[in-house]
Structure formats: structure tokens, C-alpha cells
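Summary for the lay section of the report: proteins are chains of building blocks that fold into shapes. Here we show the chain for Beta-1,4-N-acetylgalactosaminyltransferase bre-4 and then a coded description of the shape we predicted for it.
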Amino acid sequence: MTTTTPRIVYLNTDNIKYNTDATSPAANNFIDEELKLLMEQNQQLPVCGPFLEKNENDEMKNLKRRLAHNLFSEVKMGGYFFPKKCRSNHKVAILVPYRNRERNLAVFVYYMHTFLMKQDLEYRIFVIEQAGGELFNRGKLFNIGFTEMMKYNDWHCVVLHDVDILPLNKGILYTCPPYPRHMVGTVFEKSNLTYGQYRNFFGGASVLSVQHYKQINGYSNLYWGWGGEDNDMYWRILSEKLQIVSYSKNLARYTSLPRPESPRNIYSLSLFFLGNKGQVVKESNAKMDSGNGSTVDILKNIEPERFIMVNKGFPVCGSMMEQNNTNEYNKTDNRVKDNWISKVALGGYYNPKKCRSRHKVAILVPYRNREKNLAVFTNHMHPFLIKQQLEYRIFIIEQAGKEVFNRGKLFNIAFVEMMKYNDWHCVVLHDVDLLPQGDRILYTCPTFPRHMCGTVLEKAKLTYQQYHTLFGGVSALSVQHYKQINGFSNLLQISQIPIVRYNKTVALYKSLPHRGQPKNKYRYKLLAFTMAKYKTDGLSSLVYKVIWTKLRPLYTHILADVNPLREKITDVYSNMF
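The coded shape description reads as follows.
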């Protein structure tokens, strides 16, 4: 008895040609004349009825037997199928990234054809194989598959499918949805173990319209190895304010085929939280097929209303101290821990949904080359701040170039830029390597400047106490006071504004491991001139250039050139002293 090999389109990445013009003459070479004629005839047929209207009657039983015995006579060359007696409402491209999974692939294509044909879809299965020995790049293979599939048909939607999972319920429809649909609810592993797909995830098997896939700029091309690209995709969809529809976990049951483990991407968390180099959809105008970095998305003509959740009709939120002694606070604490990431809007913005906050707080964080610290910082700070019912946004201000780090100037730049987003009441000046360790450390707007960092817990349980003339680490000032002192770098006593400090037993912070910045050997001389120069050195003399501003999932990221005039630092100091 002869066997028929599965009919699949293989795209080897060595021979990929990035031609996105589906109307080009070359595109027609993929479809033979006989198939063209069949497709034209199919357009004259009545539209297929909804799949769910079909009951388990004799006709369906006959169809199952026919599929089992005669599968490959129904499927055209290239894994293409369309109903013969009706015209499908759904033209679906199934994209499957692949490498070295021969057994999985053989099971997958046989099973999926029998499953999909029952739904009266017009579909084609594309298997995109990665050549070479580099780490597997699943996201980029999806983008390649999407680009190439448009040469074969005017598809309505695309299903992004792993080769090692199979749907177990006929109620899982592979039709084209109006919104992005995550189709995997529960996966049955070997030994009857199961796992539920977690919330901020869009992997396994998902479907989007062609329009939506283009709108979110496809997958990121940066995730080499296992992990991270599906979380990144989830945020791309939310960035475009698209609603994600998910099947019930009881319905969306899949089984997992045995497979070898792929090498993990050790940078996946950093890429996800940092939106590395503009690959979050809001930040890239690059085509999906380029993979050569991306252009930047500079925010122009910013309107604060775009970034502010309107909640003026709500009652004012209660104070943090009023909540601490109530059961409601404990419930809020648990809810925040379980579900905080879905509450944070793009750009790291949050405001309470059931009340109007008393405090509009901008968190400013100067930054350079601290990817791990930043990932930990944002994950710690958002749950911490949400519990305090603040309206806040986290701004990460990064210094471009290789010049000596200028923390004070970065604070000043961020202060100027933050005013484009909201009418903030106060600003918190925060180092990226310090994390608050107690709920009594309030990030509310103070009447007087507040130094918030009392005791810092270092590694090996060593501690150091912040000395009384310092206003660093973590501090909060009203917008009015920051302007009054002309920003950094100035001591507040000169403006005769009192400084409030937390008790050292309350203001506990943990220090993250980090490399120290080169010390400024002129710092003591500069401090001696503070009283003479503070009115002219600060906001009033600020010169900088914003290279780009990007809305990351957990923060607003500003890259700035702090020395656009290319002044030599030694010349500046020699003119002063």
C-alpha cells in the first residue's frame, strides 16, 4: 500500500526573498492554472453555514469516515484546502515555525487537516523552517511566514501555531475573529499533567486578522532562543488598544506532543520589560521583514489628554494611612500582587479606577547600562505604588553617548519633558538601584521637600545610613519647589526651604548590585561654589537634545544627549575655577 506524504509549503530562510508585493507576477507562479480554475469556480458557490450549527448527525459521521480514509485527496498541493460545495467565509493562513521536529510535524499536519476541514475553512498550512545553527527565532519566523503567505492568497487572518500542540475540542474554532483571539486555555502534558496559560501571554495558538498583524508590526525580531516573544506580542496588541478574546479554559483544551527543550533566551525578561531598541510596536516604523534595527518614534505635538485616564467624576481616594488598618487594604494588596501588570497603561502610567487620586506623581529615574536593575525596579515599584492609590507615571531618562554620567542634568531634562504628559503635583527623584522595603514609605506629594531614603540595606546584610547633608537616593519635591531651586544641582537650604526626613527605621531601602559610576574629581570644588552658581546652573541654563521618546509597557523611556554642543568637561571646569 502506498502512502501519500503530507503536502506542506516549506520556506527555507536561506532562500527567502523579502518581496511583500502580493500582486507581483512572481506571486502567481506559486498557483497552478488548475487550482486557479477551482478557486474561481468556488467563488460561485453559496456561502458555507456556521460550523457550530452542525450537529453530530449521520452526515457528520460520514464526513469523519471520509476524512480518515481519504484525507490527502481533499488537500491540494502545498497544504491548501477549500470546501467543494460552498464558499467559505474565512480564508485562514496557518503559520508554523519549525526546526528539527520531524515526528511532531508528521503528527501535526495529519491531525490538523482532519480537524480544520470539518470547519469549512479555506486554509493553507505554512511551515517556516529556520536554516543554520543559530538559536531558534520563533517571532522572526512568524514574520517571514506572514510576508510570504501573502503571495498565495488574499488571506483574511493568520493563525500563529506551535508544532507541538493539538486542539482537543471541536468547539475551538479556527475562524477569523474581529479581535485577536488567544486559543489555548489548558495544555495536557505527558503523565496527565496540565498547565493553564498565564494572563499576559499570547502564545501556543493564536489568531489575528491580517490587518491587526500589520497594525501591531508583527512579532519582535529580537528574541533568539526560548521565551519572551509571546509576552512581547501581548503588549503590542494592548499598545494598539485592541481587545484580546480568550476561550474558556474548559473549552480550549490542547494536548502537548513530546519534544526536546529549546535553549532559553537569557535576555527575554530584559527585552520584554525594556522593549529593546524600539521593537515595541509604538516605537518602530521598520518593516517586519527588515530585522536591521528600527527607526525611532519621536513624540511630536504631545497632548497630555492622550496620556491621562479621565476619572474626574470619581470621589477622592482615601489616604494611605486610612487604608492600612482595614481589611480592604489587605484585599487590595492581594489583588495588586496577582494582577498589577494589567492595571498599568502604556508608558508606565497608572491611576485608580474607583476614585480620584489626591496626588499626581512623576517618578524620574536617571539611567544608563543597568538593564537588570531596571527590570527589577519596574516590577517592584508598580505593585508598591499602586497600593498607595497614586496617579503616577515612571519616566526613565537615559543618557546617550559615552560621556561621564550626569545624573543631575538627566533629572532636569526629565523634569522639563514630564510636563508634556500631565499637570503633575510633585516629582520623585529616584535611583534605579534602590527599592523601598516598607509600606509606610509614602510616595505622596509632600508640603516640603522630603528625603525618603534613611537606611540602605546592602548585600551581605551590611547597612549604611544616609548622611544629613545629602538629598539623594530617593527624594520628593513639589513641582513649584523644583522650579524655585532651579532644579539640580543645588542644595535646598540655599532657598530656605525646610527638608523633611523619614525616621531611619521606617525609610528602609534595598540596594541592587551594580557597578559604580566614575567619580567626579571636581565634586568638592563644585559644592563650594553652590551658593554662587545655583541661580544660573540648573533648569535656567539647561541645553539638551531628546533623541527619542518611547512608550514602553512599564515606563516612558527618554533617550537624551546631555551635551549636544560637545563642550569639553575639563574646559567647563577650568573656566569656573
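Put simply, here is one thing we learned. The chain has a mean pLDDT of 71.
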